[in-house]
Each structure stands twice: as structure tokens, then as C-alpha cells.
């Protein structure tokens, strides 16, 4: 998430009431999660296990809960609770604005686009040309939709990320300040839920087709010309490369990559990254031929045991 203008390190420190290490005028351009940070961004870290990863990331400002040696060319914001202060910054630069109408006056809707009754279109949404948005679709603030997109009834674009910190008092939510981007020629079935990024964008690229009742987690990127069948659940920060096929009830854990032109058969569970160009099955998912051989071997166990008894 980029700020509307460049701020200084001192200005950001004053916003959250923190101390800092670095020049007062050190430039701050935005804030992002570690997997999408760029130079000029703030990243937060609140556990020693991840200090090095954050300090060596592309981020040039690290919001951290301990004063450590600052890498050359970077700056630190020292906070007793980086998670809390990251939320403060998200709320400050991307505050929630309540809706005044079913279709916001700030929404941009392209020529030839049809929006059926009961649909909600939030603030600063952009919808391209020749789209069809069916009844009771909800499009949260800031979502971007390309040309020739079809979205069926009851689908929700842009709900918050499922991202919480477990504290003694309960679960503390990480505020979502990102968006959803749907590129051209995408079809989305009924009752799908596509969550916004925490600081960046959950993206479905050109030509992909989603069936009904699919969950897409925050910051996931679905490539071009993918085909995803119903009841598939995709966690956050997943990368699905181009022309991947996921059949019904596939479940995918967070932070992994599925390679180009991979095929995952129904009811498979994916717990680690998969190479492209292969077919997978099972839970945990493995190459389908190998998995089917294993299943065939298991079926032979009763026969083997019976033979052993006879001997």
C-alpha cells in the first residue's frame, strides 16, 4: 500500500508514538507485508525468529519491537507492539468510509456494463466495459474489475483477510488495507468469496474461470486461463501460475506455489508447492500415478495377510 505522498521517518514515528533509528528526513513511501515489500516500504516484525528476514528484506523501514543494529541504507521504527502500530498506520492512510448508496457516486463503471438489482458497489470501485454483475453481488471499496467480466449472484469481492494475532485477551485482527483486482475476460460463479490483500492486491488474471462457491484468500494470485471447480478453498499468499486446473474440493495451504499447467484432481489437499505440467491427487497431494499405485498397494494388504495366515 503506497501513501498518497512521501512522508518522513519522523512524521511516521509521531503518528504511532514510536522512537526511530535513522535520519529524520528518511523517506517513507508506503507499508507492505514482507512478501510484497519494495524499497521505501515499512514492514513489521514482532518475533526474534523473523528479525533477520525483515531486516534483510527489500523494505527500507523496519517496524520492530527491539532496537537492533540497523542495516546500511535502512531505518528502524522501535515499537513495543509493531502489530498494533502497523494497524494504526493502515487505518490512518486507508480509513473505512461508510457507504451512502448501493452504488457509490465515486465508482467508475464502463460503457456497456450491466449491474443487476441488489448489487452493492463500494467507494472508488472501478469496473470496465461490457461486464455483467448479477444480483446481490457485493464489491467492497477500491476493487478493480477489467472488461468483459461476469460475476454471478451473491459473490463477495474484497472482504477482510483472515489474519489474526493470538493474544492472551483473544484474537487481534490485522487490518486489511489492500484490494482485489479482476483482469479482463474473467468469469466468477455464484457465492464465491475473494478476500482483499492485507496491503497489496488479491489478483485473478486474464481469462481465468471460477465455478460456484470458491474461497480465495488474501494476497493470492491466480494466473491467466486457470480453471477452478466448485468448493475449492485457497488460503492466503498462494501463487497459482498460468493455465492451472483445480478440480472440486481442492484445499490449498498458504504461501505455496502451483506451477504452470498443473492439474490437481478433486478432493486433493495441497500442503507444499507443486511443479507445473504434472497431474496431482490425494492428501497430501502427490503425482497422481504414484498416488494411485500406493492406493492399489494398500488394497493388497488384506490379501497378503490372508496368505501369511495360511502359511
UniProtKB/TrEMBL annotation:
Top-level taxon of origin: Bacteria
CDD domains: LbH_LpxD
Pfam families xref list: Hexapep, Hexapep_2, LpxD
Key words of the record: Acyltransferase, Lipid A biosynthesis, Lipid biosynthesis, Lipid metabolism, Repeat, Transferase
Residues of the UDP-3-O-[3-hydroxymyristoyl] glucosamine N-acyltransferase non-repeat region domain: 27-91
tRNA processing found in the keyword field: no
Gene3D superfamilies for this protein: Hexapeptide repeat proteins (2.160.10.10), MurE/MurF, N-terminal domain (3.40.1390.10)
GO BP term (any one): lipid A biosynthetic process
A single cellular component GO annotation: membrane
Name the record gives this protein: UDP-3-O-(3-hydroxymyristoyl)glucosamine N-acyltransferase
Protein source organism: Flagellimonas sediminis
